[in-house]
Amino acid sequence: MRVLGIDCGSEFTGYGVVDQDADSTLICVTHGAVALNRNHPLALRLAAMFNQLNSILEHHRPDAVAIEDVFYAVNAKSALKLGQVRGVALLAAALHGCPIAEYAPLSIKSAVVGYGRAEKQQVQQMVARLLALKALPQSFDAADALAIAICHLHTNATERRIPATAGRR
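Above: the chain's sequence. Below: its structure in token form.
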């Protein structure tokens, strides 16, 4: 299974594509961050984000897209911008026919680090370890996106096992 994780941000949006093979080994296909030019009008930044995500979706053809769920922002203006970026990411995934899963930040950190209030450095280090990366992902945004993809793969594997064991009581 191949999952594209997306960590939306108003300045940088992280992405990470992770494969899980038949023996449950996690493999990092690619990761990075899309930088949005703060000097451009919002509409142009959103269009650039859509084009970048569209290119990633076309090139890597994920089986699913996982995205961080809405969290409470410091102020309404930040929350609105983040919501617009999330909308673009959801639209791009939907137009490619990808199933979309959304996860709360605490769930993502719990699935990857084992602690829902883990620091960004802890997430970055655990992602590198789980994916056997030779170096840490260069940005926290990319590390978070990889963590979101890993969270979805772990959740999906658990959900597949539950029906198989539910009838054995």
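Residues 16 and 109 are 16 Å apart (CA to CA).
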